[in-house]
Design goal:
The complex is a heterodimer of chains A (about 350) and B (about 280). With about 350 residues, chain A is an alpha/beta fold. Chain A is built from twelve helices and ten strands. Chain A has a seven-stranded mixed sheet. Chain A has a three-stranded antiparallel sheet with strand order 3-10-9, with no helix packed on it. By secondary structure, chain B is of the alpha/beta class. Classes of the chains: A alpha/beta (about 350), B alpha/beta (about 280).
Amino acid sequence: MTNSDLKLFVEFLLNKNYTIHSPVRKNGKIVIREITDSRKFSLIKERPLYSFKNFLLPDKKTLFSTTSDENKNGNDQKLIRKQVLFGITVFDLRAVSLLSQIFEKDPYFQDIISMTLFIGQSPIPEENSFYEKYEENILEHFKFDIFIESRGDQKDFRIFTGSKHGQKMLNEFGYDDFEHIEYAGAVPEEGLSDFHKKLKEKTKLSYGSKIWKDLGKKCLGCDKCTIVCPTCFCFKIYDENNIFNDSIARVRQWDSCFNSEFSEIAGGTKFLKTMEDRIYNWYSHKFVRIPDEYNLPGCVGCGRCADVCPAGINIKDEIFKIMKFKAKKPIAKMSKFKSKTLKKPRTKKLIYEKPI
Amino acid sequence: MRNQYKTYPLIITNIESQNALVKVFTLMPEDRKNIKCATDEKKIIKCWVPGQFISISIPGFGEAPFAICSSPNPCNEFQICVQKKGGLTSKFFSMSVGDEIDFRGPYGNGFPISKLSKRNLLLIAGGLGLAPLRPLIQIIANHAAEFGKVQLFGGSREEKMMLFKNEYGAWRKNIELNLTLDIPNENWNGSTGLVTALFDKIPISKNAIAIICGPPVMFPAVIKKIKKKGMAEKNIYLLLERRMHCGVGICQHCVLVNGKYVCKDGPVFNYAELKDSPGAI
């Protein structure tokens, strides 16, 4: 499929009443905007600064409301519009796989997912991005409908489908030169990679070490990283009173574990007291808790947090430090564990060691 | 899809003032058929385990977790103990019998009841921490033969802050009650000082299981004290308080360093579970 074919496909989707969100270049930055004119569409092969997270997990979502019948008992399917996330990169697709697991039982998230068409693409690696290289075999673990492989200067893109819905769309559009990839579940058969297994143990082991003391001093707690992170999903639930129409809404809004009141209880006690506590909590959520709970890494390696950090914290460098961490008094059990499980040959190429 | 944030109506059937800042509310789910006990899968409110908590909400004022402070027998209504602290609890204080509020839950694990049978128990409560222990105390008071020797060590700031005073007589039949006040008044003839001071005066029963509930500052001091008295770490249970928003282990507000969620894996933890979790207590 060429760029002009893609334009026609965008036109086709618009005619089907889909709202299309796609990366566009605006004032030199890549941002996600609604596409209303197919003629102006072209596939941007870089990842946007913000992820597609808020199209699936809105920054603020009304759970219940007293205004009308619409939201009295929760979600109203009629209010959710059919949407296409056009050009979602593999980083963000990986995040969608994870969020789908976390919000498996959440009707608000699931209703939105069921109305969303995912059209993925392989991005050109950015300076700050890391993680495994894009390879065809990782696609089977992503939930997508259509995938556009756009390597380098390639003009004619290879097209894959990942769902019946994607196949149907392409057939209706009149394009049949695609390959199908059957979804094999979010978690690969071998589970966490050896790299992430090691990172998990090292993160636990390094609690209270200089790495976190230094980060605690450096971090400003501005919460920018949690906003741009495609996997950050912490939220708060509170009631909002609208005096103009005399209504009350229970809303769920993004929260950030860097906020000082995040762990505060009645009476004022806080459990994440210092910046060191908070930044360790953030890293351990990504590299310990999520891998433990879902068998998936909590970081997709997009590098957005490094792009926005005003204090210049780069997660890639920090991971490098954590991986090199050695406890002063190693626990006997731990060294046994190392020799048994961590010296397996690596199956996938990792680019942590060789930054691109 | 079932909505895990959906709340159900409750009617306030009784309000009992404990002191100027604390009231006990008796609440009854509006839909009586939804509170069938036993194994009915359709019930909204399951019979709860002592130590579990419930999420209470008042539209416009938000949601907050409250420990259930009455025993699950009877099951058609339950009580919570509310201290006036913020917006939601202040609104609570302005409500009267017959008013409607909402709830979801119950949540959490509760006390390990099966591990407590036939054992000596050491219940340690600080201030409002007596409230979550009360369902257990009520069960013990009614089924004394199921337990060994039960001691309750309770501390309050002043006499007027003591909770459930009119029930002490009934509890005393089966439980050794040791109470202390930080600031005693002239009529007080019991102990004075913090709850930790009680352990210097009163011997604790051997081979007991300790359950501690109170403000966060109390835990380290009490644990240190009872360990000195020979209490094994594996026999210490703690009920933790954390900020909670979802109640189902997603929102991350209540997480501990060891990855356990207080709402889902707690709020009752064995001390051994928390040793690898700095800052938990």
